[in-house]
Specification:
Length: 196
């Protein structure tokens, strides 16, 4: 008998990123998430520590490229990348980690809807009643900078819990794992008969 390791139940791109390449793709995805976080944290620092006016507080990339901050396409693009990443990487998670990852996915879906509403207002030239600029639903009561710090936090925190649990599975979860994130030498193994 020979031992076949890794993801044996899925094929194609999703099978690859949730099997042999899960750890690498998850790492790349988290690098994108952390870069986005850095932008929000720098913008918050510029407003609340340096005392800059909100239009001048543009984060890191917004300083040399001011149009980035006001581009709803950029914000929507990031929201959809986040949503796609959460959805595409979800099959690699099992047990408790999958539950927490799903929480992040559901919250990001709503965050994506808010960004879609902003993008549609810009593209179609309409505003919500009482708004003087493109405004998301929750932004009617919470300022945009604070709202997006909140949204990014409530998506990021369950992602962190999911990753922690995913990289430290209990015995039951370890037996279910089919990805490259399982501790070395402990991945699920499927016995396959050999010819002869």
């Amino acid at each position: 008998m020979s031992v076949v390791k890794g993801n044996t139940s899925r094929g194609g791109v999703l099978g690859a990123i949730n099997g042999a390449h899960h750890r690498a793709v998850l790492g790349l995805y988290m690098a994108i998430v952390l870069a986005h976080w850095a932008e929000h944290l720098v913008q918050a620092y510029q407003i609340w520590v340096l005392g800059w006016a909100r239009p001048q507080a543009r984060g890191v990339l917004g300083m040399p490229f001011p149009w980035l901050v006001s581009s709803e396409w950029l914000h929507y693009g990031y929201a959809i990348v986040m949503l796609i990443g959460l959805f595409a990487l979800r099959p690699g998670f099992v047990g408790r980690a999958r539950t927490w990852w799903t929480v992040a996915l559901v919250i990001q879906f709503w965050h994506h809807i808010e960004h879609l509403l902003l993008l549609l207002q810009v593209q179609m030239g309409f505003l919500l009643p009482g708004a003087t600029a493109p405004t998301s639903l929750v932004q009617l009561v919470v300022p945009r900078v604070e709202l997006h710090l909140f949204y990014n936090s409530i998506v990021f925190l369950p992602m962190l819990v999911a990753m922690y649990l995913h990289l430290r599975p209990n015995d039951s979860e370890l037996r279910q794992m089919e990805c490259s994130c399982a501790p070395t030498g402990q991945r699920r193994m499927t016995l396959a008969p050999t010819a002869g």
